[in-house]
Structures are given as C-alpha cells and as structure tokens.
Design a protein that fits this description.
Length: about 300
C-alpha cells in the first residue's frame, strides 16, 4: 500500500515509527514541515525533516524528541567559548547533517534532493520530502515583536504570549517535486499528531497542497495532537488560541476543514464525537498518547484500519 504522511516534529516521529513497524512492506512518503527551518552558525538546519529522518533511521534521541541518540556536544561547548549563540543545541554528529546539507544547498542542490541523499546515507527507506524547496518560515508575533519559530520555541521556551503566527514566503512557494503526487496517489494520507498551527499549518500554506488534500478527502485521516483541552506535548494550545481555534479535537477539525474526513481522537474525548460529526468529520476513538513502541504500533493500526481501502 502507498502511504503518505504529513509530519512535523516530535509527535509525528512516534506515529511514523509505528506506521513503518505496522506496515514494513508499504511505501511511505513523508511530507515534512520546513517552517521551523533556521540558519544556526551559518548552517541550514531543518529540524522537522531531520527528526523524521532520524526517527525512521532508528537513531532519534527519543528522550529529547530531537537530534541523535548518544550525541555529544563538544563543538557546542567550544562555540560557547568563542562567544557564539548556544541556545539552540547542535550536537556533534547532528552537525555533520547540517554541514553536508549546507554545502549541498550552496552547490545548488534543492532541499528535496539533499534530503533524498541524506536518507539514502542513513538507510531510510521512506521518502522524506520537504513541503517545498523554496523557503517558508513560521514567525510568531509577541508583545515584543516578531520572533522566528526557533527563537520562540527554543530561546524563549514558548513562554512568551503569542499574538499571531505567519508563514513568511508561503505564497511564493511551490510544493516540492513529488508532494502533490504523493497526496493524490496514496491509498491513505495520514496527518500526524503535530502542532496544527506551526507544524501542519505551514504545509497547508504552500499553494496547491490543501487543494490536493480536499481532492483526497475520503482517504485522509488525521490524529489529534490535543487530548481533552490540552496538547499532548508542546505549545500547540497557545498557538491554536492565537489563531482563534478552540484547544480541543473540534479545534483541530476546524483547522483542517474542509479536507478532513476522519479524525482519530482519544477515548477520553468521546463527548466530542457528535460535535465532530456536525462538522462532517468521522471520529475514531483510540489511545492516542503514545507512551511506548507497542502503543505507537497500535495507534498506527487504528489509523490504517480507519481508512483502509478495503471496507
Ligand atoms: N529543541 C529544543 O527545545 N532545544 C534545542 O536546543 C533544540 C535543538 C535542536 C537541534 C536540531 C534539531 O533538529 C532540533 C532541535 N530542537 C531543539 C527541536 C526543534 O526546536 C524543533 O523545531 C521542535 O522539535 C519542534 O518541531
């Protein structure tokens, strides 16, 4: 079966691991968010693409949710001694990814080709596609002005008030090669439990992608990153509020209307089923907090079962 997933960072990595384990013979294409991308020490860092790639390579530091397992930070220490910024922690082996990517981009390779090469080197069978080869950057407006996503999320630890969010460059961006086909040709399109505003939002902001999802509506299933009234992890609640979305499974469905057909929600949210139905969204109940590998696979099976072409 051809599977396509739309993914952000941490929450997506767990479900992707589950999908890869549940259906090892399926072809998996991941459309990854690049709105978090940043230039750190002059290097191009693509946090969500790398988190997906490392997770599928079995090398993600699962305690942190980003970077490589068994990582050291000697260069970070040495850069600190030189007075460089060190609030964004780049590990020593992770640096190789950024050095290789930055050099390839400088030689004119598009980001999609760079990711294909990196995934090949790491033995990742899945295709990890950036949503676009053109730059799109999520920016967060706070009472003290605009911040890049990483300044907001890492430097300020998401502790500042969010007044608005924008996806700079989105209107000029085009879907990366293979992105639209991956949505149109997949038997199932999975929207991972990522932040609806800063992980899935930038992907939807690339012209053409939301339309492709609308055309694929019957095959699209999303997993809610919200249980009850709060995010399973990260600042999704604050960002949804800044966008006028209720911090609930219903708010997620509103963020994904009109292309969302099925939303997998936590068993504890059974009270939302009727409200979702009124939005035209079929709710599927499951344990959506993935606390271990078995639960990652179990949730992946629910997701695939909810939209399997064989009804
Ligand atoms: N997240 C942090 O909270 N602190 C960090 O120092 C940090 C470094 C980092 C380095 C490489 C990378 O790929 C991701 C990194 N992240 C870090 C996560 C990053 O902020 C992502 O954008 C989040 O995972 C949200 O998607």
């Amino acid at each position: 079966m051809r599977l396509t997933a739309i993914a952000g960072g941490t929450g997506a990595a767990k479900l992707l691991r589950g999908l890869a384990a549940a259906r090892p013979r399926d072809t998996l294409t991941v459309i990854g968010n690049t709105g978090d991308d940043a230039e750190i020490w002059g290097l191009h860092v693509s946090p969500d693409l790398d988190t997906v790639m490392y997770a599928l390579a079995g090398r993600l530091d699962t305690a942190r949710g980003w970077g490589l397992t068994g990582e050291t930070f000697r260069c970070l220490e040495a850069m600190g001694d030189l007075g460089a910024q060190t609030w964004f922690n780049l590990g020593d082996r992770d640096l190789a990814t950024h050095l290789h990517r930055t050099r390839a981009l400088r030689e004119g390779l598009p980001l999609s080709a760079v990711m294909a090469e990196l995934c090949g080197r790491l033995g990742v069978a899945a295709r990890v596609l950036p949503m676009s080869d053109e730059p799109v950057r999520t920016r967060v407006r706070t009472p003290d002005g605009w911040l890049s996503f990483q300044e907001y999320f890492v430097r300020e630890k998401a502790q500042v008030q969010v007044l608005d969010v924008e996806y700079a460059g989105a209107s000029q961006a085009r879907p990366a090669p293979g992105v639209l086909e991956a949505i149109c040709e997949a038997e199932v399109v999975v929207v991972c439990p990522s932040n609806p505003v800063t992980s899935v939002g930038p992907v939807l902001a690339v012209p053409g992608i939301a339309d492709a999802l609308t055309g694929a509506r019957a095959r699209v299933v999303a997993v809610s990153p919200i249980v009850g009234g709060a995010a399973v992890s990260g600042p999704a609640g604050a960002l949804m509020r800044a966008r006028g979305l209720s911090v609930s499974a219903v708010g997620v469905a509103a963020a994904y209307a009109p292309w969302l057909g099925t939303l997998v929600i936590d068993r504890s949210d059974t009270g939302r089923v009727a409200e979702l139905a009124r939005l035209g969204v079929e709710a599927v109940l499951a344990d959506i907090v993935m606390t271990d590998r078995d639960r990652e696979i179990a949730l992946a099976r629910v997701v695939l079962g909810s939209r399997s072409p064989v009804k």
